[in-house]
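Suppose a colleague, Dr. K., hands you the sequence of a protein chain of 284 amino acids and asks what its three-dimensional shape might be. Before reaching for any lab equipment, you can write down a predicted structure in token form. Begin with the sequence itself:
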Amino acid sequence: MTSTFLVVPQWQGSGSSRAMRLVDGAQAIRADLPSVATRLIDVPLEAGDSEGTGILRYSAIRLVRERLERELAELDGTPIIIGGDCGVEYAGLEHAARQGRVVLLWADAHADLNTAETSPSGAFHGMVLRALIDAGAVSPADVLLLGVRDLDDAEARFIDEAGMPRVTLDEVGDRVADRVAAARAEGVEPVLYVHIDLDVLDPGVFDGVGFPAPFGLTLEQLTTAVAQARARLPLVGAGLTEFAPAPARDEVPGDSAGATDGEGDERASDALTVILRILAALSR
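The predicted structure, expressed as tokens, is then:
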């Protein structure tokens, strides 16, 4: 089945000081995607209101989710959602859950398991996976945490209490196979969804994110993990999120040691090369 890229330049779910750069990141990726297979989801310019939820900018996040849900309902191909912040994954994973029991490879430096009550920031990108679990879209046992290494205390407690598996690179294929067997033993057909937050990569490999964390994966490790998961179960959806390119130094007020245009272009080109290799692993 062919892939369709849904570009969602949402920034409202982010708690980063570079949140608005997520718009630039999504648009930069869009420019390198085949136009015939790419759709742009309109994101409001305004920040939005919490609507009493305790989630910052919730009204804008809800509106984007509704627009994305409508687009997903019309698709025949495999959706690959391009963020924007991780909050865009809510609609994608709910869509996948309508097709079967979701086995979720969650490749991210962060678990995104906070709630409005436990979140230090109120930013939805740190809550989206917990929201999906609480809504019943995915079971904690079916979430394979890969590269997760920067946890809040409440998230660490939830992982332990819920028995969520944290997997190594060597375990990905076998763990997916285990979850497939468990689902089929219960008479349920499983489906695979892959979530990738670019901060799963080591900052030495990719630093265009709002919350880089040391000791991440290499590009080869990440694409190999994706291939291992896809070898065990067909992919029904995926997301790639949190590309927040740093401004060139000559865009920063007062920075007289700014990078030349050539240096800025080279950094952007290197980042997009990494991203396109990941998208190739997801869409081939």
